[in-house]
Amino acid sequence: MNVIVVGSGIAGLTAALHAHESGHAVTLVTKGALGDGSTGFAQGGVAGVYGVGDSAQQHAQDTLDAGAGLSDPAAVSMLVADGSARIAELIARGVAFDRSPDGRLLLGREAAHSHARIVHAGGDATGAAISRALTAAVRETGITVVDGAFLVDLVVVGGVACGIRMLVDGTHSELRAAGIILATGGAGHLYAHTTNPVGTTGDGITAAVRAGAAVADLEFVQFHPTILDAPPAFLISEAVRGEGATLIDADGHRFMFDVHPDGELAPRDVVSRAIARQAAAQGSPVRLDATMLGAATLASRFPTIDRVTRERGFDWAHDPIPVTPAAHYLMGGIVTDLDGRTSIPGLFAVGEVARTGVHGANRLASNSLLEGAVFGARAAAALSMPASAPLPAPTSREDDPLPGRATTSPFSRPALQQLMWDHVGLLRTDDGLTHALDVIRSWRANGPAPRDVADHEDANLLLLAEETVSAALRRTESVGAHFREPALIGV
User: Fold this and answer.
1) Which residue out of 268, 363, 428, 444 is catalytically annotated?
2) Is 268 known to be catalytic?
3) Global pTM?
4) Separation of CA 55 from chain center
5) Domain locations in the chain?
6) Which domain of life is it from (predicted)?
7) If you classify domain 399-491 with CATH, what class do you get?
8) Superfamily of domain 1-220+331-397
C-alpha cells in the first residue's frame, strides 16, 4: 500500500524503513531537513541491554515505578520484550555504541533505573549517531522524501484517514495514502524554557485533535532537571548524575537526599521540583558538581557537554555549574494501541506524538529512543493487519474554543510560553490553571486565520495549550509530573 510517514526522528525513520522493507510504497514527509527533530539532540542513550543481575522484568518494573502507577503494563511489557531486537537492529544499521576494550557494550545508569542498562554512542551523542545511521539507511533505500513540508491537517473521508494537507514553500498541497503514520514529536515550545529544538510545536497532535482522534495525558509534561543556566538552553545529561555528579545548594550542601532516598537519581519530576524550590529559596541557581569525575573522564565520557560548557565559559572539571529545569518531553499525546493504531482507522502515531501508555505520569530516562524504535517498527508491521482489540472512540470537539474571560494582553508566542511556564509548569495551582485557560481561550477566540507556517504553529500551540490546561484542571490530584499545590485555606 501507499504509506505516508510524517516526521524523521527515530520513530519516523524506523517506521519508514520497516514499511519499505515490508513492500509498501513509502513517502516520508518532514518539517525540516531529513533527520531534524529531537532525536539528534538526545545525549543519554537507549535502555534495554541487561547485565548481570538485571532483566527485562526489572526494566519493566522500573518503568512502572517511574510512571507513578499510570503506565499500561501491557505496553511496558511490549517495550522491554522488543527492546533487545531494536537495539541489535540499530547496531546492524551502523550505530556504533560505545564499547569497552574487550568489545562489550558499555552500560550507563540514569535516574530511577535499578541497574546500568543504557547503551550510548559518542559518550553523550547517542541521538546524533542514531539519526545519522537511520537517515543514511533511508537515503539508501530510495524512499521518497519531502522535506521542508509543514503538516497543516489530516485528510479524513468517511471516518478514515487517507492523506495529509501540507504547506511547502508557501504552497498548499495534498498527499493521499492508505496508511498515515504520525511521528512528529512533542511540543516543548509551549514553554518559555525547553530543551526541544525549534519546530517542536505540537503539529501532529493538534492535527489529530482537529480530526477527532482521542488524546490523553497531555497534563504530563516532563521537565528535565539539569539544563545549563546560561542561555541558549543546553541539556546536561542525566547520565552525568548517573556517573556520580551531585546537586548542591548555595552552601555546597548536597540537598537531594533531604528530598528523596535516591538522591540525585530520584525520578525526574522529583529532582526538577526540588531544584526549582531550592533555587527559589536561595535566590540563585542550584549547581551541578561533577568535579569529582575529573577532567579526563568528563572529556572522554561527555565530549559534547565538555565542549559546550567550556565554550560558555565554564570549567566544569574544576567548578560546579549552574543548572535549572526546562520542558523536555510530553508523556501524553494521541492514544494508540500496542501497534500504534489511533482511534481513526488508517492513522497511526509513534514516538513522542503518541500516548502508548508506556510512560504513565513520568517517563523513565532513556526509554524515549527505545519507544520510538519499538513502536515505529510495530506500526509498520501493523499497516496491513486488522486491529486485535477495540480502539478508543473518536472524540467530538467543537470547532471553536469556549469563550474565556476577555483579556487585554495581546497574543504573542513568547507571552503564551511564559504563561504556560508560570502556571502550567513544574508547580500548578487551581487559580493559576484557571487563569491560564481564560487567557488562552480569549487568544484563540480572537486569533486571525493562519496564513504561513509561523501562524499555523502559533495556532497549534494555542490549541494544544488549551487541551493541556484543560487536562491539568480535570486531574485534581498530584501524580508524577503533574503537581498541584494545595489551595491556601482562608487566605
Assistant:
1) 268
2) yes
3) 0.92
4) 25
5) 1-220+331-397, 226-325, 399-491
6) Bacteria
7) mainly alpha
8) FAD/NAD(P)-binding domain (3.50.50.60)
Per-residue pLDDT of the chain (491 residues; tens, 9 = 90+): 999 999 999 999 999 999 999 999 999 999 999 988 899 988 889 999 999 999 999 999 999 999 999 999 999 999 999 999 999 999 999 999 999 999 999 999 888 899 999 999 998 899 999 999 999 999 999 899 999 999 999 999 999 999 999 999 999 999 999 999 999 999 999 999 999 999 999 999 999 999 999 999 999 999 999 999 998 889 999 889 989 999 999 999 999 999 999 999 988 889 999 999 999 999 999 999 999 999 999 999 999 999 999 999 999 999 999 999 999 999 999 999 999 999 999 999 999 999 999 999 999 989 999 999 999 999 999 998 877 666 666 655 544 445 556 556 899 999 999 999 999 999 999 999 999 999 999 999 998 899 999 999 999 999 999 999 999 999 999 999 999 988 644 43
Whether a cis peptide bond, with omega within 30° of 0, leads into 232 is yes
Please choose, from the candidates 114, 2, 8, the residue with its C-alpha nearest in 3D space to the C-alpha of residue 63.
Answer: 114
Query: Could you tell me which of 227, 206, 209, 318 has the C-alpha nearest to residue 271?
Result: 227
Cβ distance 120 to 240 under 8 Å? Answer: no
The highest-level CATH class for domain 226-325 is alpha beta
Indicate if the alpha-carbon torsion angle 221, 226, 229, 231 is positive or negative: negative
State the DSSP string of 267-281: -HHHHHHHHHHHHHH
**What is the number of alpha carbons within 13 Å of residue 448 lying toward its C-beta?**
8
Q: What is the DSSP letter of 352?
A: G
- Rounded to whole angstroms, the Cα distance separating 214 from 290 reads 44
